[in-house]
């Protein structure tokens, strides 16, 4: 488990070496379940967002609760939805379901870690941060599709785009809670 924090940090920033290391760790069964891996990072991100929101001047308890729920929905939801839906979509390209779930969890890590965007002071800043997180998830997913799933060309791009879009949905759905906090 000493491998997990450093591997997660490297996967967050779309490192191709991290995807090779993930492939090796998956083969040796050194990692927790895919959903737990992403959800744990999402939960940590939600705790950070809650703490940052608490520091705002004039924030009420209800605002902290809404921000916490939005951050959990954004972070944990990204990993949970990706690990549930992406393996179903990858059946068409004949990828093993367990490998597809691991890929989805790892590719969605930049979005699972994005619960902190709830604490940003403006909707515009939150939207820009979400777009950057989605772009980073696409880049990571593209590297992972090539390295981890051995996909190339159009299949690689479709899988990366689909994974990043699916993982972005929970953040978009939690937007009404976020706007109520500001």
Provide structural commentary:
This protein is 77% helix and 0% strand. It has helices at 3-12, 16-27, 34-54, 61-89, 97-107, 109-112, 123-147, 153-173, 175-181. It is mostly helical. It is elongated.
Quick description:
Helices cover 77% and strands 0% of the residues. It has nine helices and no strands.
| Cα distance spanning the termini | 38 Å
Number of separate helices: 9
Helix content: over 70%
Indicate the mean pLDDT.
86
Largest sheet: none
Give the number of DSSP strands.
Answer: 0
* Overall body shape: elongated
| SSE run | HHHHHHHHH
The secondary-structure class comes to mainly alpha
Q: Low-confidence parts lasting 5 or more residues at pLDDT below 50?
A: none
Radius of gyration over all CA atoms, rounded: 16 Å
List keywords for this structure.
9 helices, mainly alpha
Blueprint (SSEs and pairs):
Layout: H1 3-12, H2 16-27, H3 34-54, H4 61-89, H5 97-107, H6 109-112, H7 123-147, H8 153-173, H9 175-181
Helix pairs in contact: 1-2, 2-7, 3-4, 3-5, 4-5, 4-8, 4-9, 5-7, 7-8
């Amino acid at each position: 488990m000493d491998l997990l924090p450093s591997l997660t940090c490297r996967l967050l920033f779309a490192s191709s070496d991290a995807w090779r290391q993930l492939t090796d760790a998956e083969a040796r069964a050194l990692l927790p379940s895919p959903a737990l891996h992403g959800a744990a990072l999402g939960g940590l991100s939600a705790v950070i967002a809650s703490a940052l929101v608490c520091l705002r001047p004039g924030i009420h308890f209800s605002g902290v609760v809404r921000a916490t729920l939005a951050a959990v929905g954004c972070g944990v939801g990204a990993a949970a939805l990706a690990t549930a839906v992406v393996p179903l979509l990858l059946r068409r390209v004949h990828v093993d379901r367990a490998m597809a779930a691991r890929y989805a969890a790892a590719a969605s890590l930049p979005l699972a870690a994005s619960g902190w965007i709830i604490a940003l002071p403006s909707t515009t800043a939150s939207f820009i941060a979400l777009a950057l997180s989605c772009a980073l998830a696409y880049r990571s997913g593209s590297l992972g599709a090539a390295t981890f799933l051995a996909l190339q060309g159009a299949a690689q791009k479709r899988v990366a785009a689909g994974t990043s879009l699916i993982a972005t949905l929970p953040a978009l759905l939690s937007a009404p809670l976020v706007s109520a906090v500001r």
